[in-house]
Amino acid sequence: MLPAANYAHPSIMLLFLFFLCIFRWFLFASAAFKVTHLPGFLQQGALPFHLETGYIEVDEVYGVELFYYFIESERNPSEDPLLLWLTGGPGCSAFSGLSLEIGPLKFISERYNGSLPNLVYHPYSWNKISNIIFLDSPVGTGFSFSNHPQGYETGDKSWSKHAIIFLRKWLIDHQQFLSNPLYIAGDSYAGKVVPLVVHNLLNGNKKQNDLEEHPKFNIQGYVIGNPSTGELIDYNARVPFAFGMGIISDELYQGINKNCEGEDYVNPKRPPCASLLQIFEDTYAYYLMYIWANSNIVQEALNVKKGTVKEWQRCLDLNYYKKDISSSLKYQVNITTSGYRALVYSGDHDMLVPFVGTKEWVKSLKFSVTDRWRSWHVGGQVAGYTESYSNNLTFATVKGAGHTAPEYKAKECLAMFRRWISHRLL
Q1: Is 326 part of the annotated catalytic residue set?
Q2: pTM attached to this predicted model
Q3: The CATH number of the domain where 370 resides is what?
Q4: Which of 156, 187, 348, 350 is catalytic?
């Protein structure tokens, strides 16, 4: 028999568990850091918006920590939607979405003179009407890191898994946002992963009982811009799009059609097709962003952990990334036919993922049309074209916009998002 001293009194055990819970809560709470001032921001005084940064561990085995920027809505944070924004690549930092697309910061594109690049307030930020988490993901992106080399071996499925773990832990620490309508959003390659995240969130919601460990997500739908799907149509649409825009000659277009009939334009098998496609393949704010984000005073202001990332890069080539989801379409069908909302938008001057291909796969879902193809307007001007479908799916083009539409047409994209998130027609 063991001596009585080896047995802990029940009250001591309860006290120990209480302090363990408090310590665990403190670890979560202390991960968040409020940023009130940013180097290079030209407006005097504190930032005119609420900015929080932090890390959340999503893999305890390899010590994978994802870095995030959280910006509160300027309208009504307690009730406005919560948006989790994933940036494409895969491997592009969420800071691209924050400072180039839908966030409240914008770089002044002026000649670099050796001093820290300057930023100003962006008046067409989507945090005018929503809370936004910009997440550096997958691991290896931006300031996110792993303590073990194997932690960087990631892919579509693990990105989705880590995003959900992140969101669950973040909401445990920010329970005031648990009841807010939740949307998952992203563009470019992230457009392929976003529906997978939503699909897995919905499946997880069905199994969750313990609020502390598994908060029930108030998921409402998703938003994807100039999205990759994994389908060949994303890439094969580039040639007819370029021809229609007058970018390639009649001769090259006709030659590709003749020699590449039925071919996969990404991996052509016939030499004549491959050689013609090779002919077909043949900005300054990015440079300023690189200088700014690698500054020591900037990283101190953002509370970046020293030594975890040798060099910040806007977009990084993730050598070990596995594209292990062939297509996102089945997830999109499952989500929308289950009653959740979707906004798919495309800059109509994007040749990377042309809108004609996106429009084609949207139509391939065979949803009935509820609001036929028509123009939508901002300030009395045509801002693009839109069509609405059954199962709460809206498709819209943004006139004159490139691959990341809000980067080119910020005012119009904010108007589009504002109308859609408010359940209005564009």
Answers
A1: no
A2: 0.83
A3: 3.40.50.1820
A4: 350
